[in-house]
Amino acid sequence: MRPNRTIALGVTLALAGWGAAAFAQEGESERRFLQQQRVVDEQLRSEKEAGAPLESLVDLQWGGWLEFYYFNYNDGVQKSRQVSRPSLGLWTRLRLDDGAHELFARMRLTYTYFKPGDEIDRQQDWLGPQFDQVWYQIDVGRAFRLTDPGDPLQLRARLGRQQVVFGTGYVLDLPMDAVLLDGRLGDLRAVGLFGRAVPSYPNIDRSAAVASHSDRLFYGVQLSYEGWQDHVPFVYGLFNNDRSETVGFLQRYSYDSAYLGGGLRGALAHNFNYWAEAALEFGRSFGDRGFLRQDPIEAFAWNVGVEKIFDLPLQPRLSAEYMFASGDGDRRFSPTNARGGNRPGTVDTGFSGFGFRDTGLAFAPTLSNLHVWRAGGALRPFEDVEVLRDFEVGTNWFLYWKNRQRAAISDPLADNFDGYVGWEMDYFLNWRLSSDLSWTLRWGSFFPGDAFSDRGTRHFLFTGVVWSF
Asked: How far from chain centre, in Å, is Cα 107?
C-alpha cells in the first residue's frame, strides 16, 4: 500500500471514530438526565400509589397531586445545570360488580424549565397533558358468573396504557399500550403480553436519528409458581420487534431482541427479603455502518439483592445488590446505539434490556457492559417525636466496573481502556409532614475512576414537595 493511501485511510478512520464519539456524547447528556428523572420518579412512586392505591375496594375514587422539584447537577459535559420541574397529576378509579370490572385513569402534566444556557435540547418544554396510565380490567370468570373467588381457575384481562413488569423488572419494566392476560390454575400463574412501547418514551438507542421515538412491539409470556408461602420462582420469554424504519447514510437502526429469563423472589426469614434474576438475550442488531444485514445478538445479564428490615427502635433497614450486564469489545463508542456500536459482521455480545434499576443519581449509567455493586440503608431517627415520626434518612453507595475494559459504557466520557469506572455515594431525606404533604431531598456524588481522563467529581442534587388531594 502506498504511503499517501495509508495516511488517507488513517485520517478517514479517525474522522469516522470522532464522528461516532460526537454522536454518542451528544445524546448521552439527555439520556443520563432521563435516567436520573426515572430514578427520581421510581423512588417517589410509593407517594403516588399511597394517594391512589391500586388495590382499593372503594367503588369510586378520585384525587391528584401537585409537585415541584428542583435539580442541580454536573453531567460531566457542563459543571452545573439547573432545572425546575412542576407537575400536576389527576387520577380516578371506577369499580363495578364487586370488582369484576375496573377502570383506572391517571393524567399528568409536567413543565421542565432549564436555566438559560443549561439546556440539553430545549430550554423549556411541556409534557402533556397525557395519560401515563389508562386501562380497563375485567375478571372474566366473575363478570360472566363462571367462577367464584375461591375457584382454582381464574382469568383477568387488562387493556390499555399500563406499567408492564416481568420478573423483578431487570429485563422489562416499561410503560406500554398493552393487553395483559393473567390466568391462574391453582398455584400456577401465567401472564401473556401483547404490547407496544409508548411512542414518546425514550428509546434505548440514543442515536440522533432515532432518539426521539420508540416504535416497538413486545410479545411475551411469564410463568410463576405461587404455592410456596415465602418463595415465588418464575420463568419468562420476551420478544421485542423494532418496527423503526429509520435509515441514515449507510446506516439502519432496528434492534430485534429476545430474552429467556428466570429467577426467584421472596423472603429468607422474617423481614429478610431477596430477589434474583438472570436472562439470556438473542436476536439481531444493526452494527455501526450496518445497512444490508443484521448481526446476531448473544448477551446475558443477572441481578441479585437482599433487604433486611429490623424490628428495632428507629426502624433501620439495610440492603445490598449486585447487577451485571455483558458488554461487547467491538462497541468502542456506545454500548446500546447502532451508530458507534457493534462492528458489522461480528456477534453483538452487549446486553440491552428494557428494565430498570437504581444505578445512582449522579452517574446514572445504562445497564450494559457493567458490574454494579450497591449497598445502602435507612432509618427513622425521630420516631418518638410526633411531627417527625415519618422523617427518614438513608444512603446508597455504588461501585462500578466494566465487563470489557476496551468497550464503551453509556458515558462516552469514559475514554480510557480501563475497567475501573468509579464509585458513588447517594443520600436522601424523606419527610411526610402530614397525610397530604411530603418533602424529599436527594444528593449524590460520583467519583470517576481510571476509565475517565477527566476525574472531576460530579454532583446531583434535587429537592421537592408533593401535595396530594
From this structure: 20
